[in-house]
Amino acid sequence: QVQLVESGGGLVQAGGSLRLSCVASGSIFSIYLMAWYRQAPGRQRELVAAVTSGGTTNYRDTVKGRVTISRDNAKNTVYLQMNSLKPEDTGFYYCNGNEYWGKGALVTASS
Fold this sequence. Notes:
Blueprint: E1 4-7, E2 10-13, E3 18-24, E4 33-39, E5 46-52, E6 57-59, E7 67-72, E8 77-82, E9 91-97, E10 100-101, E11 105-110
Parallel strand pairs: 2-11
Antiparallel strand pairs: 1-3, 3-8, 4-5, 4-9, 5-6, 7-8, 9-10, 9-11
């Protein structure tokens, strides 16, 4: 059983930056794909970014060039660096690996 806990959310003005962290209670070394999803009010949860155990990354088109996902297997942590935040980036951000989900961190980018 792995528990995922997100942190680093908050309120920023549009154009600002935040770094989200996801700390796992157990090892993520064996989890091939770790990802960040987000869910805005009234909308479905959507994939933001993903990273494989080998470091290959994938991003949704609307965040490319502004967001960087990374993982530190030694620290059992996955990060999401978000720059040039836009109001449409607002929502709850969830960490995911296999069947495990965190409870989410709220990101609000005000215009």
